[in-house]
Design brief:
By secondary structure, the protein is mainly α. The strands form 2 sheets. A two-stranded antiparallel sheet has the order 1-2. A two-stranded antiparallel sheet has the order 3-4. The two termini are about 55 Å apart. The chain is about 65% helix and about 5% strand.
Length: about 950
Amino acid sequence: MIVLILCHFVLAACAAPLVRRFGRYAFVVLALPPAATTAWAVTRWSGAEAGRAVTWSWEWIGTYDVSAALRLDALAELMVLLAAGVGMLVLLYCASYFTDDSPRLASFAGNLLAFAGAMLALVLADDLISLYVFWELTTVFSYLLIGHSSERKQSRRSALQALTVTTLGGLAMLVGFLILGEAAGTYRISAIVADPPETTLAVSVAVVLVLCGALAKSAIWPFSLWLPNAMAAPTPVSAYLHAAAMVKAGVYLVARLAPAFADVPVWRPVVLVLGGATMLLGGWRALRLNDLKLVLAYGTVSQLGFLLVLAGAGNRNAALAAAAMILGHALFKAALFLVTGIVDHAAGTRDLRALSGLGRTMPYVCTVAVLAAASMAAVPPFIGFAAKEAAFDALLHGGAADRWALAVVVAGSVLTVAYTLRFVWGAFARKPGVADTPAHRTGAAFLAPPAVLAVAGLVLGPGVGWTDRLFAAYADTFPAPAHPYHLALWHGFGVVLLLSALAWAGGALLFAGRAAVTRLSRRVAWPTADGVFGHLLLGLERVALQITGFVQRGSLSGYLAITLAVVLTGQLAVLATDRPWDGAVAPRIWDVPLQGAMAVLTCAAALSCLTVSRRMKAVVLAGLTGYGTALLFVVQGAPDLALTQFCVETVSMIVFVLVLRRLPVRFEESIGTWRRALRIPVALAAAATVGVTVWVAGAARVAEPAGAAMVEEVAHHGLKDVVATILVDLRAWDTMGESAVLAAAAIGVTSLIYLHRRGETSGNREELQGETAWAMSGRRLTGLPQGDDTAPERSWLAAGSTLAPEHRSVVFEVIARLLFHPILVLSLYLLFCAENMPGGGFVAGLVAGLGLITRYLAGGRFELAEAAPLQPGLFTGLGLFVSTAVALGGLMEGTVLHAWTYHGHLPVFGDYHLSTSVLFDFGVYLLVLGVVLDIVRALGAKIDRQIERAAGQLGPAPDAGEGEPTR
């Protein structure tokens, strides 16, 4: 199973070269994974109908009992055949539907096959978390497919609408999954269905949340608005996603969980009421539309409501009918969508008012459409008839709620017959006063996929008994009724057949009076859901603009005050309600008096920031608070933390100084006395609240501290530095996440400086036509030697010639040149000694970055370019790659980030060992070095170029593609 799923994604990744090589016929190659999956599923038919399940699992998060588990049973067998079989036919259809010069054909092909793989994994998933992952993958790929024609506004809007609605439902479903998993004690779906948790308020809430996800995915009212708009997608997408695959996911989830939760009090009212309402509203809307795809789209919405009623009814016979109807609906609706694509392709329009006489022009296409439409209208001997007979019988012999649902279903079936006749008449009939529509010939390969589906619906009508054992294997998971129903084409005359005849007659009457029905439908039409959605979004945008205008006033101190006030209010409310300090151990003022002295000095530096008006003084005082915190770490005996804090504070202060070059010397915001009187208490109260919260959190510990166990674990492996080992081994997942966040934050911040391109020739001296930013000054000093009189006798820097002699410092140049390489060696030492001494990849990267900063401060941007000629993105990307590769390499031992150590012997150096934790830390080292270099280039070298260009000292950039920085 897992191999088949992976084949879909691997071949999808190869779609671009395949399309370049074979053009539109690449779809034939891409159809191989679905074809292989279909063949494999056919071989598993007998086992599935006998009740045997094929399983596969891989432990994902063992601590929380989360596994990537797959399971093929009877229901999954049906869905796999539909997802793979229909997917194969749609891919073959695409080879005729598109041309070699169709825009973005490769991306469409890859996304469609990847969607098929995600859908296959979804229906096979036997774990709630795995199911959610693949559920959202289908959402993402459907977004890409619906928005394929991205140059059209309607396509972009429809794709975003589908993504918004289904994602919101998916997030609600995830919360429900988590509650169900915790309540059941397992996330394995088969185990939950076999032994469902006791019905409690939490379980009821979880069921409602899961149903929200299912309803949104299957376009059930009130979430049905996205499906008709998704018809902006190419016709193959509609035939696959919106007939046989994606929209069936919600119905599949309801069918999967119904044996366990159908008796939960909230289940049946939600499913029956919303399903019935959707069937009626979708069918009624389809009677007044003129676009063939929209007629089918609203018909699909109607049929999905019908399927939801059957899948969620909660009894054995309804479940049997649901399985048969899922199969029948996929066959006839996919065929009709494909036929619509052929009509549009041949005639150039889908407007039924403009189509006329295609039944004679395209007789074979018309025949296929009639076969599929007859199955949709439940005419014997098609599978649609057999499935609807089973549905009527199941609801007729159910409880009172089922019989009410039967009345709704019969009314919905009348509408189904009416819009089916409207579709066939609109597409193929000759209309009075309308000239015959010219259409070009349709090839056999183009017609073959819908013909196969339509003929399958005809064959499986008399042969529906072949599927009875498979569908019964799923239906038997419900309590057995006194008279279990068996699928067959003919069950004799009775009430059920009478209801079918009533539906045919009622539908024919509605179609005969279609003009009056259309006028009535438009007269009593409610506001469309799409219009309501648009007005809601517009209102949300307006409210957001009003709130943004009120809150975002350009004052950073105001933003900070609001943030602190919100945090303070929330924390005080919790503290006042819970009173967690009762029984807590009283805090100690200090462990040693030196801590108190350091704390007083740090607080004094912080308070001094309030009295200064110059930005530079504020930066220095803020930096002193950081250094004071580092000294507290030293006194406490935490050298790793102290070293890291010192380096971070140093880099931060330098960055601040670089930025201050583009800011006024003094703070320009005027703060009144009353504002200062308000902000100071807020800040002090927030600080006190945070302190109390930290004390309470520490005093609330009930478990034994993990420190002793960590020290023992580290010593067991022959190591000494517990902090470094925690970062790169015991809590390496956290380090990976923090590294990714750090890289993303640095890229985001520096991208504000680079408007168009990040790669720039900042080290090209030819573009400089005058002085550098480091040589310019606001006014010249008089009475001092000028020119070469003050220049050093030799150049200590690689780019020393770019500096004005009167602005050079021989002492700084010598120190920078002499210390640069020792600093780099020190950074490597801190990297490799981290197992037993203070250090690590993070602090080592900062130290290496400080070495490059020293070169920049001594010689400017050209010196930085000489010291680091490579782009920062190379270091950042290589660091992420190394860390990720080491993490995935642990899979060879069974789990991600599994650590191993290699022991060896070198002739000169003797015995050595190399651990994966060191390699992981090396990735962190490169990433941090790249981030520091990126920041220095953006806030240092790039701003230098701004100053030089503003002063007219910079010539035209040799690379014309370079963007100007934002100002």
